[in-house]
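Take one record.
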Amino acid sequence: MRTILNTAHVYLVLGLVSGLGYRELTKITGFTGETQLAVVHTHILALGMLFFLIVLALDKLFDLTGHGLFRWFFGIYNAGLAVTVGAMTLKGTLTVLGKPAGEALALVAGLGHILLTVGLVLLFVTLGKRIPAEECPGPGTAGNAAGVRSRPVRRVSPS
C-alpha cells in the first residue's frame, strides 16, 4: 500500500511541476495559441495522482496487491502513463517553440494509450478476482442482486 501512496505522491509533484513549466515556457516565449502542453498537468493529476489514490482505497478494501496480476497492472499502467505524458509534453513543447512534431510522435502516443488500456483491463480483472460474487436470491424469493429482500408494493386506488 505504501508503494501506491508514494506513486500518487510522485504524480502530484510531477503534475504541479508540469503546470508550472507550461506557464513559464509560454510566458518566456510569448506563446498564446493552443498546445497539448496546457493539459499535461491535468492528465498527470487525474490519471496519476487521483487514480492511484482511488487504487489505494480499493487496495485497502480488497487487498489488490495480494493478487499476482496487480504487479502487471501497476507496471504496464505506469509505463503507459509515462509514455503518453511524455509524448504530450514533447508535442506541446514543440508546438510552443514553433517546430513540427513528426508522425513517429503520434505512434508513440498511441502506444502509450494502448498500454494504459491494457493496464486498466488488468486492474478490472484483478478487481473481479478480489471482489467476491454475491449470491442472487433463489427462485420464489423477493430480493435484489445483493440478496436484500424487498417489501411488497401496496397499491392505493385513486379515490
The chain has four helices and no strands. The first helix runs from residue 2 to 29. The mean pLDDT is 89.
